[in-house]
Write a structure and sequence with these properties.
Elements lengths: L2 H6 L13 H7 L13 H7 L6 E10 L1 H9 L12 E11 L5 E11 L6 E7 L19 H7 L4 E5 L16 H21 L4 E10 L1 H13 L7 E8 L5 H11 L4 H16 L20 H4 L6 H6 L5 H4 L2 H8 L3 H9 L13 E4 L9 H12 L5 E4 L6 H31 L1
Parallel strand pairs: 4-5, 4-6, 6-7, 8-9
Antiparallel strand pairs: 1-2, 2-3, 3-5
């Protein structure tokens, strides 16, 4: 799908139009259970020092009936046949750490079903690329709430982190820094557990991890973290969708060989290089990497406040127009600091999950080539894990792969939960 199509359709890279009128949304808001300290304030820092995953505030956002959820999902064509319950949505503010391990705060979306078992299993749903704060799950009633609503309406609690620097979190988003996205996701699970108990809907230790695009890579890496002894959680399944698991071997080659649509490649490259420069210094001056006139504006475009449309309007149509000749060659054959940054974020599939894994994607994807999914499956196979690869078909681009895959993941989670319950019942007998 091209940038032009994304600009005319509701997609995850931008804040979709709300499915309900603003007045209806405002009418459904409840008073916050606790008021959050302003981001970056002394009170915020003190709360962060209370420990990772400490719940700072809990604010009600929306309450939807099953019909509301079905209507919302229908705006993008999701299969809503698994909707059984209405949902309640909350914004959580919680303590976490930044990429350098310093105390920080982040926000995220907690969604609870209005029904189902008293103790709920938990889904971690990590979202795809957004560059605007309000496009994060807790930021507004846009498209990044749809898959959390889909999973919660089937009877599970859902924790959807905004990541660092998005939603209500301070600072810039460290885009594609897998490690800090994982710490924010783990801490969101802890905060969600506290919040759910406070709301009278306690959760079990069982976590089903899913995510889309950037969030698929995060989900795979999160699964590894949850599988470590002493994590406090039990990973039950992994169902990532269309993730850039293989930056060096699949994603960047797709940028220069045409498998990634040129305008999409420009957006991703600009975001990645400017964000990674704060963590793995790639350049001292943007003019070393970006051609004029883009070098003067590219960093400010990704400040979290610019809309997707404005970012695209401020960038050229192809990577060759964006990058200096030297840096275009560096992208084509990564070396030095760029290669270091890629390798630091390229090991999400380099481990041995004990839980079952399904890797979803679409072979017509021109944002994240399907080669990424095949590379992840191959990496898991080297560890002795046979992951089922689900190709949504030759017509499935990046977003259609998510629309088709997410309901399938819900049904798979249902099947796994039923199997677990049956085994537990048999063991008791």
């Amino acid at each position: 799908m091209t940038i032009e199509q994304k600009q005319s359709n509701r997609q995850w890279l931008r804040r979709g139009a709300a499915a309900v009128a603003l007045a209806a949304v405002l009418g459904g808001l409840a008073a916050p259970v606790a008021l959050a300290a302003p981001a970056g304030s002394p009170a915020s820092a003190t709360a962060a020092q209370g420990g990772r995953g400490h719940l700072i505030s809990l604010t009600a956002l929306e309450r939807l009936t099953p019909a509301d959820v079905t209507d919302r999902l229908g705006t993008l064509g999701f299969d809503a046949s698994t909707v059984r319950y209405g949902v309640d949505a909350y914004r959580l503010t919680y303590a976490t750490v930044d990429p350098r391990g310093r105390p920080a705060t982040a926000t995220g979306l907690l969604v609870l079903p209005r029904g189902g078992p008293h103790r709920l299993d938990l889904v971690s749903d990590t979202h795809g690329t957004v560059a605007t704060r309000d496009d994060a799950p807790s930021g507004g009633p846009g498209d990044n709430r749809l898959t959390p609503y889909l999973h919660a309406s089937a009877g599970r609690a859902v924790a959807a982190p905004d990541y660092l620097g998005l939603g209500g979190g301070p600072g810039a988003h460290p885009y594609m820094d897998t490690r800090s996205s994982v710490t924010a996701s783990v801490d969101m699970l802890e905060a969600a557990r506290t919040a759910a108990a406070r709301l009278g809907r306690p959760v079990t230790r069982d976590v089903y991890a899913t995510g889309f695009s950037q969030g698929a890579q995060v989900a795979m890496a999160l699964g590894r973290e949850l599988s470590r002894p002493g994590s406090g959680f039990r990973l039950r399944a992994l169902a990532p969708i269309a993730g850039p698991y293989d930056l060096d071997g699949s994603e960047l080659p797709g940028v220069t060989d045409g498998r990634v649509a040129p305008r999409t490649a420009v957006f991703y490259l600009s975001y990645f290089l400017t964000a990674q420069n704060r963590l793995h210094p790639l350049y001292a001056d943007p003019a070393e990497v970006f051609r004029a006139p883009y070098a003067q504006a590219v960093e400010s475009l990704f400040d979290g406040n610019h809309r997707f449309e404005d970012i695209v309007a401020g960038l050229p149509a192809s990577p060759q127009e964006l990058l200096t000749p030297e840096w275009y060659e560096n992208v084509r054959a990564p070396r030095g600091a760029l290669l270091t940054a890629l390798k630091a974020n390229d090991d999400a599939c380099d481990w041995k999950p004990a839980a079952p894994v399904r890797l979803y994607g679409g072979s017509a994807d021109t944002d994240v080539p399907f080669a990424n999914t095949r590379a992840c499956a191959a990496e898991l196979a080297r560890h002795g894990v046979r992951a089922k690869v689900v190709d949504q078909g030759p017509d499935a681009d990046h977003f259609l792969s998510a629309i088709r895959s997410a309901p399938q993941a819900v049904r798979w989670f249902d099947t796994l939960r039923q199997t677990t319950a049956l085994r537990q019942t048999t063991a008791v007998r």
